[in-house]
Amino acid sequence: MDLMYSVSGFAVGMLVGVTGVGGGSLMTPLLVFLFGFKASVAVGTDLLYAAITKTGGVFVHHGKHRSVDWRIVGWLALGSLPFALITLYVIKQLMDVGKETTGMITFTLGVALILTACALLIRAVLLQRAKAKGEIDDDHSSIENAGRFSTRWEVPATVLTGAVLGVLVTLSSVGAGALGTVALMFLYPRMTTLKIVGTDLAHAIPLTAVAGLGHLSLGNVDLMLLGSLLIGSLPGIWIGSHLSAKIPEHFLRPVLASVLLLIGLKFVMQ
């Protein structure tokens, strides 16, 4: 069965490399439906898996592309990390009094997957609108990174966005990727796509690490499963990244969004 975990990790890693969609929206449903793990264990294991796999991506974005806006990362983290800790505390209190948290996590997972599916479709619309307004060029580049809000409201809006992501990611392991990038595209319409991806990736690492370690302390992480997934996913991401230029994004994203929408609805209606 360990081999099957690695094969699954490879398949998800390749899809992540091709589409850029966070592994949580693919890996967590796979662990629940295909392998029968409890939603809480699937979420906890996937959070640590995400923290490890995303670290390599940040080295590339920061070191090679210089595409991380650390100022925005700090504002997002100011909201997400405290709310991730608060969410973990609430889960622990519910567990201590014997309340079953699986149903809450499953429902949140379903909602997060539906939002992610919508985000995948909205992202393309936002890019087209920005291009039509002349805010970005055909290569999604821009000179000015002006925010949508005035300076007075820019920081609170970004911190609030981080807080929402902190709760959602801690409960479901989904949202740090697709939802984070769409939120940044809305908040900072003139920011380059490369910088949005790099900034979102940099913010996702501390968030998934804090949430994952919190779930580990609650007993919601399977370390053997984590190792097996990493063995398969790391080469999968590398291969998928090289294939991404050859597979049309306008075909893949709607298909992936439809699959995530169906899975999300199944979770919500359980």
Can you put this structure into words, describing what you see?
With 270 residues, this protein is mainly α. 78% of the residues lie in helices and 0% in strands. It is built from 10 helices and no strands. The longest helix is centred in the middle third of the chain and has 31 residues, at 102-132. The protein is globular, with a radius of gyration of 18 Å. The two termini are 26 Å apart.
Quick structural summary:
This protein is mainly alpha-helical and 270 residues long. It has one domain. The chain is built from 10 helices and no strands.
Keyword list:
78% helix; 270 residues; single chain; mainly alpha; 10 helices
Question: How are the secondary structure elements laid out?
Answer:
Blueprint: H1 2-19, H2 24-33, H3 39-65, H4 70-96, H5 102-132, H6 151-172, H7 178-187, H8 193-217, H9 223-243, H10 249-268
Helix pairs in contact: 1-9, 2-3, 3-6, 3-8, 3-9, 4-6, 4-8, 5-6, 5-7, 5-10, 6-7, 7-8
Number of structural units classed as domains: 1
Termini separation (Å)?
26 Å
How many strands in all?
A: 0
Element pattern in H and E: HHHHHHHHHH
Q: Give the overall shape, derived from the CA principal axes.
A: globular
The biggest sheet amounts to: none
Percent in strands: under 5%
**How much helicity do the residues have?**
over 70%
